[in-house]
Write a structure and sequence with these properties.
The protein is flat. It has five helices and five strands. The protein has 156 residues and is α+β, with helices and mostly antiparallel strands.
Length: 156
Amino acid sequence: MFKTADLLKPAYRIAILGATVGVLTACTSIYRNHGYVPSEEDLATVQVGVDTRDSVIQAVGAPSSSGVLEESGYYYVSTRMRHYGPRKPEVVSRQLVAISFDQRGVVRNIERYSLADGRVIPLERRVTDSSIEDKTFLRQLLGNLGNFNPGTVLNQ
């Protein structure tokens, strides 16, 4: 009887050691990188007042996003996020390179920003909410009774 108890002690130690290692491994930080920012060497090839939109794309690559207006600039954004266990992901660093153009499409200015230059702005796509989310099926059905026209159904 004592022999089986002595044999189980190393198994318990190994199980406890394995569980401890598993818990410690689960709590390590995981870093994720999103986006692209050109290096200083690549940006040095872009000359203010000389290069155009097409030559900027050839020199440093396509931008992450661009302005809505024609004379707006190109924006290169890179974000590094840290995931730590069950916590909410945290933005560790964000780099933004803004290349602005004049009306002729020639480079006017190159600027670099980071988190130290301002507040954190969440980069996300927004979708317009519909007005029917808070209405139940019965409320939607009864709300459409006044909009129903039998003539359109019968084609008369």
